[in-house]
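Entry 14: structure prediction run for non-specific serine/threonine protein kinase. Input pasted below.
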Amino acid sequence: MFSCLFDMIDFGFAQYLSNTEHKFAIRGSPLYMAPEILLCHEYDARVDLWSVGVIMYECLFGKAPYSSDSFHELAEKIKNCRNIEIPKGSYVSEECKDLLLSLLKHEPTERLSFDEFFSHDFLDLEHTPTEENYEKAITLAQRAVTADKEKNNQEAFHLYCDALRYFVPLLINETDVQKKKYLRMRINEYINRSEKLKQLIMDSSSNNEKNAETSSQIKEKNLGVLQKLGINSFPYQELRILSKTTFDMASALEMGEVGEQYFAEGNYALALEKFKSSLGILMRVLAKEPPGRRRDLLHQQIQTWMNQAESTKGLLATRMLNDSTTEPIKNNQCLIQ
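Run finished. Output tokens:
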């Protein structure tokens, strides 16, 4: 079966290999071919996803994942399904790493689908710099300003963050110097205001927790009575109490709390990671949860952290923007990461 690899080589490439294989590293299409093609297995359009992964890997690290000095060496690496790893000393975001390794799956059925590719968080095609998205950004910013004037801090904060997710790609893509300067000024205003609103929200939440501490302790001791009375104060504390009998839910809620702590500290990358991990578990728990008070509280908390995760993405995008404009590109790596 493996001999068919050589049957696939076109005449020109075969002639090239016969004379220079020992002198030059392989170049051209074989490096980008999916394993199922090179191994003469049945294949479909998913081979293109492998090729995208190889190109992405080259952009990031300056070499193909299976860089080889000969076709035989390349074939052996593919045949043995040698693990594809991120080069030591290199840094890419978790989203970038997830997309890259999901594309470079040897088994086609394990490779992500085209729909999953186009909807992946790393690509973020929803916020591409288009005229339509510019209008969305303006609309969101206007709604944020209105909510801000009405002292609706939480709504204003989320809207500013949503607007920033559209504005940042627009800024990066803008080529006109004056427009770029103006856009950057407005983005800085929205960043500063969203950070101030975040602090106001955190301060308000902290004060509420201090005032509610005694009542929360009473509630834990008298939960049954409170439920019968229909008292809905402090829903998160109630959810924590109700989660004690379900390990997955309890641990996921702890992850979410850690995410909130990172968020408050401004460590948005770790905050987003914790929110995603927490929500992934809680969504599975919710799908199996029977109707009732606990399910309602769980659904409410999931919505809260989903909104906070989206806002975190907005603030994280501004951090990444600052990094990309102040730090030089190292090791010939693309800004794709």
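Notes: The domain at 4-123 is CATH 1.10.510.10 (Transferase(Phosphotransferase); domain 1). Will compare against the previous run tomorrow.
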